[in-house]
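Weekly structure sync - notes
Attendees: PM, LS, DV (DV joined late)
Agenda: review two folding runs queued last week.

Item 1: First target. Sequence and structure tokens pasted below for the record.
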Amino acid sequence: MPKCSKSEKIEDALLWECPVGEIFSNTSDYKSSLIALTAHNWLLRISATTGKILEKIYLSSYCKFRYLSWDTPQEVIAVKSAQNKGSAVARQAGIQQPVLLYLAVFRVLPFSLVGILEINKKIFGNITDATLSHGILIVMYSSGLVRLYSFQAITEQFMQQKLDLGCACRWGGTTGTVGEAPFGIPCNIKITDTPPLLFEVSSLESAFQIGGHPWHYIITPNKKKQKGVFHICALKDNSLAKNGIQEMECCSLESDWIYFHPDASGRIIHVGPNQVKVLKLSEIENNSSRHQISEDFVILANREKNKNENLTVTASGRVVKKTFNLLDDDPEQETFKIVDYEDELDLLSVVAVTQIDAEGKAHLDFHCNEYGTLLKSIPLVESWDVTYSHEVYFDRDLVLHIEQKPNRVFSCYVYQMICDTGEEEETINRSC
């Protein structure tokens, strides 16, 4: 396989592993891999143990791909392009670009192409964004409207030609190899008519989450004054769950966020600057048709409370009471930045950051997913600048920290956890 040049910038990355018991024709499919997207539209599959490039796929030259995400974890990867805003001259002339963005979809076990989907405003109207989640195409509008469509139904109805990576293809009068430069991957899924609508709802900033058992969804009422208020409703009849209005009492620059737990337990994770709430969805006693929200456990940031923090003594001895309080996400206090879940180890990982002098220090905490108990804390060696964009991924024994600096300069820090036999023996002795 060709190697990536030293000047190539990694835009985004994911980690996937082969499940036990699967049989693949390609031996490289058995290797734990990093999926990386470069600045020049190359999708790389890299061995997580050796760093060797196992597969290199050129996506296209007709758009700029920028984002990687799991659709269904460990099964499908969606690569989303940057939004097509057209040239400045076209915008000044009032000419709108009909194609908003593209979604390239791949299966990972084994790694294969599903296709590239075109999101066209002529079909969906004046949409602002689109994404793929759990086999559902979700499109969003500036009004806050969110609409859901079946991705499987779309591929079955609108796929123009099935494409296979590495195979010869004739497209638009040009012949090339799918996934190789300069041919790349043609856009083979073009929606020519509005697909059947599954569901629609209105939410502030088009924020929408779906999950739970049975299906529920989370929205914020479409009013600015409701920002930070979340409603949890049943999908079948839009009824609000008991205690389904969740609002975290916090004063911070950054909003708290909420989502369904990725462990398929039907629970909900609500994250604020100084606490992580894990909520459970359960039937109301003697009323199986309705459900209620209750607290499962809470993880709190490590903060010392100073009883006299609002009092200041002047040089003359006069006591002055402050008329303001620190924000809950004040950088000098330990603040939660990222919460993730590792399915194989069944652990919640929480990144906490504290600004110390001129630089920030972060640590990654592992909590029991069932009870929230702190099991281990790992300090990150590199400093954490809160003004930069950060992503942290945890998968079994690997931790990735991706930092985006100004001018789209990325740094990637990789940690591999190893078993400390001395620590293991000490743990065994304590438990005896």
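Item 2: Second target, run right after the first with the same settings.
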Amino acid sequence: MEENIPTVFPASSFNPRADADALHKAMKGLGTDEKVLISILCHRTRDQRVSINHAYKAGYGKDLESALKSELGGCFENLMVALCLPLAEFMAREVHHAISGIGTNEGTLIEILCSGTNQDIREMNAAYQQLYGHPMENDIKGDTSGEFELLLVSLVQGQRDENQTVDVYEARADAHLLFQAGAAKVGTDESVFHSILASRSWPHLRMVMDEYQEMHGHTLEHAVMSEFSFNAERGLLTILQCAKNRHEYFSHRLHHAIDGLGTNDRNLIRIIVSRCDVDLNNIKQEYERKFSRSLQADVSGDSSGDYQRALLALLG
């Protein structure tokens, strides 16, 4: 697998107190100096932004989030607030937003839970409990049903195998089990698909996909599409996409957020903020490869003003 390359790198002579003071000054009095906000929050890593947050609260007795909210508005405000929150808290809020109110945003739940690492998911669980006073799992159960619910509940445990070495015989055995549970019989043994796709390591799943195709002449994705429907199908396919090429998966999500009428700013902000410290550079390359356009050009064409400048700064 290629190495993950972020688009945001640590600021060299980093001083959280100085940054907090500069942010405070930029928001003091009449009007706000948005350039200063962008120059600081879009050019510090996740850990550095958390330190700035602490320094701000220590220096001024209030959260950076509430200061930003009282000065800014619209998508620019949402982006700046997302940057100043610890990532686990931001993602927990995104899950909560996807399941609260009328209807459920299944796409968001799938993106966050099907692509997350164990550590991401465990930290998110802890943040969710702290924010809302009960486990994330309870809300997911209350808002989803059937196969989709079972899959998400499995994923929320954050128990995916993290062993990076793959045993070809084990991969073959899993490929065989999946065939027996699906294509080889009438009806589907869904639990076999869940238990393998939700708990095996990413490299192991890549090998299972190769073995499956070799043994049965069609892809495991094809099997999932013929055995499942709706959200359970989308969730399982997302796991397979992330196993195969996570960067490509996120490039599609971004394209989907930008493409067509209107922009899904919530998805755009979430993906850029959650990936800029991890692998946004890889996602950018994948985007260009898939769509023959640069992600910067598409984001630029779909946003404006300070919001646009901030997004472009994060895209590097």
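Discussion on item 2: The chain has a mean pLDDT of 96.
Action: LS to circulate a short write-up before next sync.
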